[in-house]
Task: inverse folding
């Protein structure tokens, strides 16, 4: 080949290479032009609909009274709020304003996204799509990018889909036209509420199917309790707890009781023993009250006749069990006795039957939510509560081959076994055991008239576990001082208590119950930390 031919061939190759380079550059310029045009279109579209979505500004969140302070303020100024739990088919084709958390988001395309909004355990599916008036692609993108657990406000039309909606409590859908982020959650959370809401059965079923779902353990839940209590089950638990406290108050007020508030800083131990939280009180030794016992009795001395209290109780025992806390909410009662200490048990009977009936009637949704994550059988109880003497209980255990000290207290295993025997024989999981041995009761407990080894006292059980302790009190001051000394208590530390009985006091008795334990056993939850909002046990003092 001649040098001239070689030059021509190289020239052709260079020309082709140059042409390809120019074509590539042309395509890049064309793509850039298209992108620029699209960007311009997006900006134009965003400018058109930007008032329909976005982050709520800080000035608007400062309780600004101006209705035109911002897009969010303008949007919600003339609307009423609708709770997510109230979104039903009766609201079809009505425009609503809701607030809730971003439970999940699911982008379908650039033109459509779903967001599930959760409020107080109730969830609703919201559709954000460009075919709705005022909804842009940028709005769809904004919604799809929302972090879980962020607080949002949404305005839209209620629609009823033809097919049932899976995964939400409300069987309606909101076609959103405006949506604002009130407060952003961080992108990555310590625990996901969805994970924390799963039952053990769901996790095991997924494992059998070859999928491994996250299991949130107890300590992790308690470390990030503010997230954990957002689950439907926990929302149910603490609403049930609220109802327990409400019925406790309502019933006792209807029976002529007066609510009192006693001090939690005291000079001596209220129950005896060393399991108290000691502290310095302006240079004097003091402790946190283990019980309102002494002061509620003093209220009876003050002629209130019948009193109750709802308040904190402190126990310093190193009890690492499923049912003990170092701080819990005590429900305490004290009342004048006219003739017999059974009058106190009568109040217990009617109070708790009323409470259980109310929970079953008024907390159905909450009980259902709890049962979905923590399955349990409804509590069995009688309209008239079963009463057994301690001696009868011991005999039932002996007949079943369980040996117990007839003058000792029942341990946890014996209590559970007796609960099982009572259920089998009497078909109830709620009963009263009375006339306990005097040696296992506090110093202020009145001995039985016919046998000084026993006392006018009682415990109450749910599902084989003790929840209530009560008794007739010693109201004769000399005998009270004698009993205190016998139990190793320095009478000088309770002198004001003993002296209050020197001014005349009627026979009286009462009982105390832990709020958290009632809810734990009613719902068969197995661990009292589930029913304490922020538990305090020997190893936990935060959050």
Result:
């Amino acid at each position: 080949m001649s040098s001239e031919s070689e030059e021509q061939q190289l020239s052709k190759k260079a020309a082709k290479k140059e042409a390809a380079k120019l074509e590539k550059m042309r395509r890049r310029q064309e793509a850039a032009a298209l992108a620029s045009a699209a960007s311009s279109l997006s900006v134009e579209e965003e400018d058109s609909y930007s008032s329909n979505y976005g982050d709520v500004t800080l000035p608007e969140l400062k309780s600004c009274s101006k209705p035109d302070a911002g897009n969010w303020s303008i949007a919600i100024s003339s609307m009423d709020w609708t709770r997510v739990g109230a979104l039903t088919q009766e609201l079809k084709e009505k425009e609503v304003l809701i607030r809730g958390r971003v439970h999940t988001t699911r982008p379908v395309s650039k033109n459509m996204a779903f967001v599930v909004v959760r409020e107080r355990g109730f969830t609703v599916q919201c559709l954000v799509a460009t075919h709705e008036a005022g909804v842009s692609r940028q709005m769809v993108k904004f919604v799809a990018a929302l972090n879980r657990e962020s607080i949002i406000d949404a305005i839209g039309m209620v629609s009823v889909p033809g097919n049932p909606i899976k995964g939400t409590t409300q069987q309606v859908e909101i076609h959103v036209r405006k949506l604002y982020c009130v407060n952003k959650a961080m992108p990555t959370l310590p625990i996901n509420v969805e994970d924390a809401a799963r039952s053990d059965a769901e996790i095991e079923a997924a494992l059998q199917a070859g999928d491994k779902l996250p299991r949130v353990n107890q300590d992790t839940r308690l470390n990030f309790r503010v997230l954990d209590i957002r689950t439907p089950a926990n929302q149910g638990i603490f609403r049930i707890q609220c109802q327990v406290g409400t019925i406790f108050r309502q019933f006792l007020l209807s029976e002529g009781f007066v609510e009192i508030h006693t001090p939690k800083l005291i000079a001596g131990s209220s129950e005896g023993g060393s399991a108290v939280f000691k502290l310095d009180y302006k240079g004097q030794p003091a402790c946190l009250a283990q019980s309102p016992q002494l002061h509620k009795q003093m209220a009876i001395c003050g002629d209130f006749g019948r009193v109750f209290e709802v308040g904190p109780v402190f126990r310093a025992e190193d009890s690492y069990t499923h049912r003990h806390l170092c701080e819990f909410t005590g429900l305490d009662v004290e009342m004048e006795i006219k003739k017999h200490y059974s009058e106190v048990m009568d109040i217990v009977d009617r109070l708790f039957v009323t409470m259980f009936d109310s929970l079953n009637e008024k907390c159905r949704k909450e009980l259902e939510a709890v049962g979905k994550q923590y399955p349990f059988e409804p509590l069995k109880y009688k309209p008239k509560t079963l009463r057994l003497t301690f001696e009868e209980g011991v005999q039932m255990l002996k007949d079943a081959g369980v040996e117990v000290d007839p003058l000792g207290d029942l341990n946890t295993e014996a209590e559970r076994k007796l609960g099982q025997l009572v259920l089998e024989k009497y078909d109830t999981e709620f009963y009263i055991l009375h006339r306990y041995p005097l040696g296992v009761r506090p110093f202020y407990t009145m001995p039985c008239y016919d046998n000084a080894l026993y006392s006018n006292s009682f415990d109450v059980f749910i599902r084989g576990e003790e929840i209530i302790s009560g008794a007739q009190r010693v109201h004769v001051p000399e005998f009270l001082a004698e009993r205190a000394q016998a139990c190793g208590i320095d009478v000088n530390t309770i002198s004001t208590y003993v002296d209050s009985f020197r001014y005349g006091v009627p026979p009286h008795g009462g009982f105390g119950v832990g709020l958290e334990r009632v809810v734990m056993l009613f719902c068969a939850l197995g661990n009292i930390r589930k029913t304490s909002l922020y538990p305090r046990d020997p190893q936990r003092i935060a959050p």
